[in-house]
Structures are given as structure tokens and as C-alpha cells.
Amino acid sequence: MCHRFCSAQFCYAEFPPVVTGSSAVPMPSSTNDRVELVDIAHKRGPEPLPSSPSDSHGCKRPHTDSAPVQQGPLVTSSGSSSHKLNMLSDEESGELPAGVVNIFPTHNDQSRCCCPTQPQRTTLASCDVAQVFVSQYIAENLAYLQEREQREFLSESPTPNRASKTSSAQSTLSSFTPTSREDEIASKLVDCVSPPPGEVSEAQYFPINTGATKAAFLEKCAKSLPKQPWVTAQMRTKLVCWLFEVTMDYSISDEAFHLAISILDRVLRSGVTAAQYQAKPDCNWEADFFCVRTRELQALGWYVFTL
Amino acid sequence: MVCIYSVRKRPLFPPRMDFALTALGIAFSSACLWMGSKMLDGRKADQHDMAFITNHSVTTATLRKLEFRVFRQLGFSVHCLTPLHYLNAYLRASRACPCRTCEYDHPALRHMVMYLLCLARLPSSLMDERPSLVVAAALYLARATLGIEDCQTPAYPYKYWSRTLQYYTKYFVSDLRRSVLRIYNYQLQAGCIRAAPFEKYKVESCLQVSLIPARCLEDLEFSHMDYCSDGL
Q1: Where in chain B are the domains?
Q2: Which of residues 161 through 180 in chain A touch B, CB cutoff 8 A?
Q3: Residue B124 and residue A237: Cβ atoms within 8 Å?
Q4: In chain A, what residues touch B138 (CB-CB under 8 Å)?
């Protein structure tokens, strides 16, 4: 069977997972936390069907209520079990699926270490590897669900916006409703450039550094972000580039940069706008920000001149 | 008197509001960077430096006020997972090889993944993605760019991904497709738009990973994924 039919989605769609008796029994989660963690890890495993609905971001996540999958290759009538992608493992017994290398060696598992030259991990010796990954997944999932709840709550609650009181601004806001702009940007920019073969040089590798291409690229980014009708993707990109330059100049670590961008995205996603900021009685906007500087405004794409 | 006009013709937007929000973005980003530096760096950034980089359009008192504003907006829960939390584990899974014959650490892989992660911060379409998905996509694109293939038998359906990576990242290649293509767009355009990560990672100390040519779209092995009705 060729590689085209070896993807996990096709296999799971063609042959539904076989439910075993031992793993299909739901364990009481209140009595044992470890059982609950491993059970969640099992739920993450199987790939959804190609016809399954995707979430709001478009990325297809595995079904949370799907049945666990049997260990080992699935026995089917067509005999194509050698091409199954068997990603699940019995993490309670420490068994890894075939073809998977243990990247976290423990005391009892020296023979399966993939990096024999590296020193042994002693900090995680008493901690189960599966539990580390499951706890990471749960922490990530909790943050994701909390952000999603917050997003839905903010989208349902009426946010007072001073700019929306005027009719012209209202019509402008309604016309700039963000709908699937990431898909447009991602779909239209894929076939822009193909790298030339041969010698690598900057001038040769980027021959499209012309005004028209750059303007066309920036035009595709000129759409407003959700909950930020005044901020476009282009402005955010320039802001992140400027922050990266600052981290280079002041030798700020990459971790701090990524954390700063995460905080900034969360602030932008929470719907803080200039109108809301100005409406706060304890924050006098004009007294704080009336000092006009030109360099950063020009860096963000504005023409500033004095009369 | 100062007049501010937009490059793009959007006459319905009041210029004062645009200016307000532009300055608000600069001020908020400076405050966020200051917070991140204070939380994670050994030698934290000075608030006077943060005021200096805004050309003193934001004073230190305003910076502190904005910091409290960000804390109050986020409910004092500012710690969050970033893609760098997953980077070491995923790089280790990328280096693992069951036959132990081709097991080596590519010298440019970490720099390439870091470069692609910095590029992944630029598009707003990756704002809502999971950090583990972003770093897995960057790792896939880095392996494809550097030509790191899986030598396992029986062969994995996708040569730039392996069963070990799939097991530890819990992501199939079909999950990574959207994010990989979004990072790939910015990898192609990074030199054109003069992105700051491109300037940083083209030096010798970073092995000039930003000057390594990107793969063609056909080499990313996404062409046969036609069943996704997302228009890509």
C-alpha cells in the first residue's frame, strides 16, 4: 500500500478503533488522580475523522469522548495492519509503541535511552515521564479553555465603546468585522516566492524586494484584529518586530520576549482599546500620552509633520 | 500643532483615535516587555531604558501605571506557557533515532527552530494557537529546511516527521499543516519585509540560519492533503 493511504486519518476512518475490555471501563476519577491523568492521555490519542467538524481555529483536535484504542497493530480483514500509526501507549506499564524511542531515560530503563552519552536525569527520576507530559497537557488545556471561555464571555458581553456612538464610526466598525482573514493571508501568500537554486546570497534569494510586492504583502495584512477595531495585523507585526529589536539591543532573553508577546496578545485579546482606557476616571489619556514623538509613529507607518 | 495622517486611506477613522491607539500599543508593549524581563531575566531591564526606547513618549510613571493596568486586566495571572517551554523536549525527540546509527544533533537545528519561533510571533493568525502546536510546526519546518529525515523502518509516511516526534508531541502532520504554512509564508517574506529576526539570525554566531533557502511548497509534503476544506 502506498504512502498516500498510510496516513492515520485514512486508517482510522477506514477501520474504526477496536475497544478492549480493560481500557474501555471508565475508572472513577475521584478515587485516584493518576488514573484520571492517564485516562485523559488516552483520550487525546486517536485522530479525528476527516469529516469531523473542526473548532473555531480550524485545527482539528482529537475527540475527547472517543473510545480508547487497542495496543499494537489493529487486526483488520484487509491485512494492512503494518501501516497503522499506533501512537497510543500504555503509560501505566511503561510500554512505548513500536518505533518510538524513549527520550527520558530513568533508572530502570537504561537500555532504551536514546542518548547514552548524556548524563542521567536525576531530577525526574522519581517522577513518571507520562505524568510529566500529561500534566503539561492539562496545564496547556486549562489555559486554552480559560482563554476560550474568556473570549466567549467577552464576545457575548456588551463592551462599551465610545467610538461606536457615532454613526460613521459604527459603520466603519461593522465593515471591518474580522472574518477568516488569517485564511486569506495564508492562502494567498503561499505561492508568492520560490527560492532560487544554487548559491545562497541575500540579494539573490530575495529578488522580490520591490515596492509592489511589499505593498501587496502589507495590504493583505491591513485588517483589524478581533476585539481591536483600531489595530491591524500589520501594526501588530511592526510592534513585535520593534520589540524584537529592543530585545536585541538590551540583551533581553528570548524567554522574556516570548512571555512579553504572550502577555501583549492576551491584553489585545481582552479588548482593551483606547476608548476604554480613556473612559477610566483614574487614567487621564491626554495628560499621559499627549507628548507626541515622531520616530515611533513613523516606524508604525504614519506620516507626521508639524504645521 | 501636529497633524497625523495615515498611509492608507481610511478617512473615517479619526486621526486622534489612531494616534491614541498607536501610542497605546507602544506603551503597552513596552510595559509587557518590562514585565517579562523582570519576571524571567537575571538582569532586568531598567524602567528608564524602557522609557528611552519609546523616545520618552511614555514616562516611567506611566509605565508603572500601565504595568498595574495589565496586571489588573489579566487578573494577576501573567504566567503562561510559551513555545520555549516545549522546545528542549521536542528537540530531544527530534534527535532520537531507534537504530542509533544516524543519531546526531544537527548544529543548526536549535537556531533554526528559534528563528522560526520568532517568525511565528509575527503573524496575528498564530495568536490563538497552542504553544505546543506552534513549536511542533516550527520544528517540522526546520527539519524540512535543513533536510533532516527520519531513517526508521518501516518508513513513516512523512519523511520530516517521525513516530517518536508524533508520540511525544501528540500531533500528526495534518495537525501541523496550517501552522507550518503560516510560518512558511513569513520564512519566505522575512528578508523582503526586513523582519528583525532575519537580521538577528543571519550572523555567524547563529550559523546564518536565516539565509538558508526555504524549501519549495511541494517538498513540505502537504500537497496530497486535499480533504481539508479550509481553502489552503
Answers
A1: 15-73, 83-220
A2: 163, 168-169, 171-172
A3: yes
A4: none
Task: Say if the Cβ atoms of B41 and A252 lie within 8 Å.
Answer: yes
Q: Which residue of A has its CA nearest to B26?
A: A239
- What is the rounded CA–CA span in Å between residue A76 and residue A86? 14
A to B CB pairs, distance under 8 Å? 358
Regarding pTM above 0.80, the answer is: no
Classify domain B83-220 by CATH number: 1.10.472.10
List, for residues B118-127, the tens digit of each pLDDT value. 999 998 888 8
B115 contacts in chain A (CB < 8 Å): none
Pairwise CA distance, residues A260 & B212, whole Å: 28
Domain that residue A105 falls in: 101-139
Q: Quick count: other Cβ atoms within 10 Å of Cβ A161? A: 17
d(CA A82, CA A86): 10
What ipTM describes this predicted complex? 0.87
Nearest CA in chain A to B32: A260
* pLDDT single digits (tens) B10-44: 332 333 344 445 566 777 888 899 999 999 988 88
CB contact under 8 A, B211 and A205: yes
Evaluate whether residue A202 is within a structural domain.
yes
Amino acid at A224: S
Which of A145-154's residues contact partners 24+ apart within 8 Å by CB, and which partners?
A: A147/A266, A147/A269, A147/B128, A150/A270, A151/A269, A154/A227, A154/A270, A154/A271
